[in-house]
Amino acid sequence: MPNPRCHFLILLMKFVSIICFCHYIMPISGEDETNAVKKVDVGIILDLETNVAKVMHTCILLALEDYHAASRSAIRIVPHFRDSKKDDVEAASAAISLLKDVKVQAIFGPQMSTQTDFVIDIAKRAEVPIISPATSPLLTVKEHPYFIRAALPSSSQTKAIAAIVSRFDWREVVVIYEDSPYGTGIVPHLSDALLENSTLVSYRSVISPSANDDQILRELYKLNTMQTRIFIVHLQPSLASRLFLKAEEAGMMSDGYAWIITDVLTSLLDSVNRSVIESSMQGVLGIKPYVPRSNELTNFNKRWRRRFRQEYPDMDTVELNVYGLWAYDGVTALAKAVEKVAGTATPKSNKVDTRDNSTDLDALGTSELGSLLIDSMQNITLKTGLSGDFRIINGELQPSPYQIVNIIGKGERSIGFWTETDGISYKLKMNGKTAKSNNKKLGTIFWPGESNIVPRGWEIPTTGKKLRIGVPVKGGLEQFIKVETDPKTKAVTATGFCADVFIEVIQSLPYAVPYEFIPFRMPDSHTNPNYDHLVYKISSKEYDAVVGDVTISESRSKNVDFALPFTESGISAVVPVKDDERKNAWIFLKPLQKELWITTGAFFVFIGFVVWVLEHRVNEEFRGPKRKQVGMIFWFSFSTLVFAHKERVTSNLTRFVVIVWAFVVLVLTSSYTASLTSMLTVQQLQPTITDLNDLIKNGEYVGYQEGSFVKDILKRMRFDSTKLRNYSTLEEYNAALSRGSKNEGVGAIVDELPYLRLFLNKYCGKYIMIGPTYKTAGFGFAFPKGSPLVPDVSRAVLKVMEGEFMNNIIQKWFGNETDCPEKDGMATTSSLTLDSFKGLFLIAGVSASSALLIFFLIFLYQNREILATDDSIWQKLSAIAKAFDDEKDKPNSKSENPGEGNESQTTTPFAASAASPEIFPNLPSQSPETRTASPPDEGFSTTEPGTPLEETITEANEER
């Protein structure tokens, strides 16, 4: 019999349980309670038949559980899952059902871009936000205001792919993509990113999702006949698996090939059969969004595995991927946004249209919570997201670093990272930025074919086709290129300087390049080929390259790519030389140009005039008859030329002018002597014309090589086209220059330096090159635009030019260039020009003018009483001129100034007492002829005036 006390305890426990249950259930059912839990319905549309959707489904369930466990809010997110069954219409139908029947406030999904495109418009009418992991860049947030992208668009990886391509200097790639919105959406963005790094998409291979294995194999064989060996694959995992199996069968997973796969395939690599990875994808490079490791992620991965096995017990090979992590973070962000705005609006829809003729879309109604929810979701951040820094800005998930992996063995190995700010690096810092010390580097890569050598990126097509090399057939100058055709075998051979360089360059390449020469001649065999037409043959795909004396020019480079030049550059002119100038009777005038002779003569006269003005009033040598004074002006200045002037000057201003002028004369005479000595002692080849502009002024005829672009340059230099004549051989050059312009020849030949060097080497001493030299790029080998041969050929050209081969080949075809040393010297005039002495003449002119100005100012000040009179201007000028012409009183003559020297003061009384008969009555009178002159004073004058004694005696005699 049971114990009554135990029976009572059992009844008490049941009663308490009932009370607790009622307490728990009543707030949920009672909407008017203050502590009632608010339910927010959220729709989730996934393709539950796919492995990716199953991974996302499990992650979403865990995300809601974690949110409800961590949140103290009264908000409860109620998920409603729908299966779109890989069909756009099914996805749209599921969205309508969720909006109409369930009244969801937000929809997560669909996962496919085409499905999302349908659902966005439906949700926009109901004003319900769509949070979708669709990656197509064709779906833009700006055009769809209720669309939130919770995954990275496929366009965000294009710069990372372009950086990898640029890292290995690949210039052309082939893009293989799926014929679907998923595949086509990335192509424009990828092409632009590659073009920014100077890489071209040489071919776009489109593969249908329904293509069979034979169709895929035929496409791969087509790709294998092309030169490009770099392939970028943007396919879904199922289609990519079949592609790589057939690539292995076609021999395209061997040495020399490079394959890059995009993020979808790399992130879902676990869904690819292991046997396909091990047999057909070894050495492939891939990129995927980088997910940083963390303890939270490790713990979550364990929980996810347990939950996934519970949900899908028959699936064991599926691994957690970034799309599942984005789903977890996206739903978590959605729950936080709902929690933020649910308190301000009731999660319900407005009244719907119930008319009989209304459609399902009309019956959707609008969500009061949707507009607030979309504003909250457009800018939200989860700093502790499982996928990393989960940030949605303006409705777009912001890019994270991309991880670069190399597929080896059964899986992948990380070899580096890429970020938009820092580019490629081997390691990442803790903050997600690249490590500066390891920037621009990648880890060790094993390429297809188990090779560690970076693929070159292109190969000669495997069809056995040879490169068609166009070579010009010239009527002359065969030292550069000569084409011969065997009459029996029709085999074409090319010889000459350009052909030998090309053959050596091809042999220097690290791989074999089969080629054949194809002659290019104009319809009229008597004329040389037009090289512009020859280069155009590459653009029209008649030739694969052009070899010859083809000059690199701006107009030609628009249509083709040139390798580095292999000759010197420049355009110049050759003219005949004059006879030996040393036999010329007037060679002594040659050292100075006419302008310098005239300027020098003018300064001689000017300096002589200045000296005369300064010395006329104080120096007896510069006085006297007018003829004597004019002669003194010319004599004094020109005598300084040989420093033969004997006249002494007394004025300090004159001494200053003469010192400066003597320095100028010294420089002039020294320069003249040096130039004349050079002309008389050194054999010089003087040109008949010293500048190309002289040809235009004189109306001379000018010759050029037929078919050359030099004709266009001469026209741009304003040469008259009627004055241009073309020639083909060196002999024709010689004949035309010998005849001259007046005898149906030319005054000069204008051509490129290599031809002129050869011409001068043959006619040494007869002609000379004149300047200036107009720069050109030299000869180069031409290839089609974007040809992968160009960089390798350019490097080979540098290698050939740095070796001994170039010297040998130059001597072989052009001879020893040291045999004619005069040809290398550019002819220039040896006459001295006025420009070289402008500074000297300026100094002399300023010095003389300054002295002259100071003299006149002092003179006018001394005669200021004349200017102060009331006379007319003409009378004043006459008085000033008379005062200037009068000899200035000297201190040792009869003095009127109180400031005379002591010697004058003592001499004058003595002279007066000696000469005056009143004082000395007994002395006989003497004539001036019998007087004895006193010794002359020291000074600069050669003839001194009379002494004071003589003047006194003379005056006394005159008074008698």
UniProtKB/TrEMBL annotation:
Its main location: membrane. Residues 886-960 are annotated as: Disordered. Disulfide bonds join 764-820. It holds the Pfam family Lig_chan. Keywords: Disulfide bond, Glycoprotein, Ion channel, Ion transport, Ligand-gated ion channel, Membrane, Receptor, Signal, Transmembrane, Transmembrane helix, Transport. It is found in: Membrane. SUPFAM superfamilies: Periplasmic binding protein-like I, Periplasmic binding protein-like II. Belongs to the glutamate-gated ion channel (TC 1.A.10.1) family. GO terms for cellular component: membrane. Residues 923-933 have a biased composition (Polar residues). This is Glutamate receptor. The gene is LOC104222348. The keyword Disulfide bond applies. It comes from the Eukaryota. GO terms for molecular function: ligand-gated monoatomic ion channel activity. May form heteromers. The keyword Aminoacyl-tRNA synthetase does not apply.
